[in-house]
Design a protein that fits this description.
The chain is mainly β. The protein has 3 domains: about 160 residues, Triple-stranded beta-helix (Sandwich); about 140 residues, no CATH class; about 110 residues, Jelly Rolls (Sandwich). It has 3 helices and 29 strands. Strands 14, 15, 16, 20, 21, 22, 24, 27 and 29 form a 9-stranded antiparallel β-sheet that branches. Strands 7, 10, 11, 12 and 13 form a 5-stranded antiparallel β-sheet that branches. Strand 20 and strand 21 form a beta hairpin. The longest helix is centred in the N-terminal third of the chain and has 22 residues. The radius of gyration is 35 Å and the shape is elongated. The two termini are about 55 Å apart.
Length: about 500
């Protein structure tokens, strides 16, 4: 960085003012490039309706950072310099109003792209009183006490500042049938900020008509939002431990359904979504839900309508601009995003089963990969689901009865959590295992993992079992009509 050196008694030269200003601009540009990079970015410039609402939108104050020539033209006594490029800052200190016109054809809508660019112009203004243009005093060598009025006493005005500004406009797309209209691309040198959609007959613009432009290069994190590498490694160890972000990697995933509504809700502190082709996106602070009564699209099913007694996969979905939502699907390998325009990335976050009557999600609670049914007398699940009960097989031979798990846990379950009970019956035994290769109740070398025995004293012996799923079945044998196995929950392989 260069600073001027001055001496007592030296003559005052023009460049003693312009060159330090240019050097300061270079220093700020280099600092901006070091922090932000050299691609165009903007800060602020939020787009909102006017108050009262009208057919205008208001663009808030803000700044744009763009690579530009050091001096596109001569600046005072400084020569033009288009060889060197620096990041320059355009500033808008006041809100800007932009006009939006509704299409004239019934049933049609149009998308306006709010776009911005950097522009540098020479202006003539007196900063002390705002008067413009300005006639400057010049040195009069014939009579130094009486300055010239303008150069050579011509009375001509002179530019006083080279100003970097934000230039904004609303670029209209092509009017088309509502839902099929397309947002125009930014003009050369511009970046998109927001999209305003307006329909025929509309007389005001509301916040619902304004969305962020996909891929808008907004500065969303400040230095104060950053954390040290050590703190980040400790805080985000689960995701940070993966060299390349892994689709579905999450931190603090919680899900639930009450069983008395169509909703299943999820919150996630941090989640990696992907388009399935290796392009990932890490987003924080998720709070999303799906409803089995909603139409196909974000917040509903991916395609079709909900069915009863059916397993569905729940997915978090995201847009490139960071917009977050959720969708559910019959597919456990990935959702269809045809009915979710703009959403390009996803990650499975859970699964749920619907009831037969209302097609509501069965009541559950999920923390991370562990999911547990939540029985309640007021929900659609008044007791833990019964997988099998009564006499089956032979407990001593043993002869095992296969019990399918498909109606009780999703196809992505890696483990199942059970409640095994023998009820009160003298010499009543119930055994359970993850496969049929275990011995019976009398085996001392290969005993069954679960062996519940009742003394008939009135007690109802009950144990919990946690089996890794080795197949689509678990195995059961009982010599008592009162024996049974209930499903308490599962571990999901998300």
């Amino acid at each position: 960085m260069r600073r001027p050196i001055t001496y007592i008694g030296q003559s005052i030269l023009e460049w003693l003012f312009t060159r330090p200003a240019q050097d300061n601009m270079v220093a700020l540009g280099k600092l901006s490039a070091a922090v932000l990079g050299t691609t165009t970015q903007f800060n602020g410039l939020a787009v909102s309706p006017t108050s009262p609402a009208s057919l205008q939108v208001s663009v808030a104050p803000g700044e744009i950072y763009m690579l530009a020539a050091l001096e596109a033209t001569a600046c005072g006594t400084l020569a033009a310099d288009t060889t060197h490029q620096i990041v320059k800052q355009g500033i808008s200190l006041d809100a800007t109003l932009l006009n939006i016109a509704a299409p004239s054809v019934a049933g049609q809508s149009i998308n306006y792209l709010i776009q911005a660019t950097f522009q540098e112009t020479d202006i003539s203004v007196d900063p002390t009183n705002g008067s413009s243009p300005v006639v400057l005093p010049f040195y009069n060598d014939a009579n130094p006490t009486v300055p010239y009025n303008g150069p050579n006493n011509t009375g001509q005005t002179s530019n006083t500042f080279r100003q970097g500004s934000v230039v904004l406009n609303a670029k209209p797309g092509i009017s088309a049938t509502t839902g099929s209209q397309v947002t125009p691309s930014p003009d050369s040198g511009y970046v998109g900020i927001a999209v305003v959609t307006i329909a025929n007959g509309q007389s005001t613009i509301t916040s619902g008509n304004i969305t962020a432009y996909s891929g808008a290069p907004a500065i969303t994190e400040r230095l104060g939002d950053k954390i040290s590498q050590a703190t980040g490694d400790a805080r985000y160890a689960q995701i940070g431990a993966v060299g390349t972000p892994l689709q579905g990697a999450f931190r603090n995933l919680v899900g639930s359904a009450t069983g008395i509504s169509a909703a299943a809700a999820y919150t996630i502190d941090e989640l990696v979504t992907s388009d399935g082709a290796g392009n990932t996106q890490t987003l924080r602070n998720w709070s999303v839900s799906v409803s089995t009564s909603a139409a196909a699209g974000p917040g509903g099913i991916d395609t079709g309508t909900a069915a009863g007694n059916t397993w569905y996969a729940a997915y978090a979905i995201s847009k490139p601009d960071g917009t977050k939502s959720a969708i559910y699907s019959l597919s456990f390998t990935g959702p269809s995003l045809t009915n979710a325009p703009g959403y390009t990335k996803w990650a499975r976050i859970g699964a749920f089963r619907t009831d037969a009557t209302n097609k509501y999600p069965l009541s559950f609670k999920q923390i991370g990969r562990r999911v547990q049914y939540v029985p309640s007398s007021t929900s659609n699940l008044t007791a833990s689901p019964i997988m099998i009960n009564g006499v089956a097989g032979n407990i001593t031979t043993p002869t095992w009865a296969a019990v399918g798990v498909g109606a009780f846990v999703p196809p992505t379950a890696s483990a199942i959590k059970l409640i095994v009970t023998g009820y009160a019956q003298t010499n009543g035994n119930v055994i359970a295992a993850p496969n049929n290769q275990y011995g019976g109740t009398t085996s001392t070398t290969n005993p069954p993992p679960i062996n519940v025995m009742s003394s008939g004293s009135g007690n109802i012996p009950t144990v919990q079992a946690d089996f890794m799923l080795e197949s689509a079945n678990i195995y059961y044998a009982s010599n008592t009509a009162n024996g049974g196995v209930f499903c308490m929950g599962w571990d999901d392989s998300i």
